[in-house]
Design a protein that fits this description.
Blueprint: E1 5-12, H1 17-30, E2 34-41, E3 49-57, E4 70-75, H2 78-84, E5 88-97, H3 104-107, H4 117-123, E6 127-129, H5 131-138, H6 144-153, H7 160-170, H8 176-190
Parallel strand pairs: 1-4, 4-5, 5-6
Antiparallel strand pairs: 1-3, 2-3
Helix pairs in contact: 1-6, 1-7, 2-4, 5-6, 5-8, 6-8, 7-8
Length: 197
């Protein structure tokens, strides 16, 4: 039985998935774990998919994951959450932002918008929260990624103090307080295993 934990962060370009993955990796390193991190950019600057995989444990040999192996999916928007469902273990934890960013073929009218996404994610036990709303409440509309890390932190084996320390070291100095508040709001929303927003 492997002691490696796999976290898949999925979003689109500009949502801060890479920073969020970097924060998680640094928290895991600070806790003494071996960590592997990989990023996949799919035309990220044009709103394409951006996936970050963080794997941590006693010894991690590869950042690559196969379908059905992710312990956690942290999804920055609904469609990417649905796309990445096949990578999650049957008992995996899903934290999903309620925002939807329509793919280019939908925006151009080539394809119809996907239907049933929320129902499918709900069926899989997803924990939903409005990360943008909580980021605005924290005073930093661009901190939805940190809100999601706060929500994810509830299901990960790291002290909240370690998260705060890494976040404070990774975000611009002028935004530290707002980002720490964003983290706290995300964490508070999901304490007890179910989000309240």
């Amino acid at each position: 039985m492997s002691d490696v934990t796999t976290v898949l962060l999925a979003g689109v370009g500009g949502q801060g998935t890479i920073l969020a993955g970097d924060v998680l990796a640094k928290v895991a390193v600070a806790a003494g774990y071996d960590v592997k991190l990989s990023e996949v950019h799919g035309m990220a600057q044009r709103g394409g998919s951006v996936d970050t995989v963080v794997r941590f444990g006693t010894k991690v040999f590869s950042p690559v994951i196969d379908p059905g192996t992710a312990d956690h999916l942290i999804a920055f928007e609904l469609i990417e959450a649905a796309r990445k469902l096949p990578f999650v273990k049957p008992a995996g934890r899903l934290v999903v932002n309620t925002r939807t960013i329509q793919p280019l073929p939908v925006l151009t009218g080539t394809l119809a918008p996907p239907v049933g996404v929320v129902a499918a994610l709900d069926y899989e036990g997803a924990i939903f929260l409005d990360a943008e709303e909580l980021a605005c409440e924290a005073g930093s509309p661009h901190s939805a990624n940190i809100v999601l890390m706060g929500a994810a932190s509830v299901g990960l084996p790291f002290d909240a103090a370690a998260w705060r320390e890494v976040i404070a070291s990774r975000v611009p100095p002028k935004t530290v307080d707002a980002n720490l508040q964003a983290f706290e709001l995300g964490r508070r929303a999901c304490e007890g295993g179910a989000c309240t927003v």
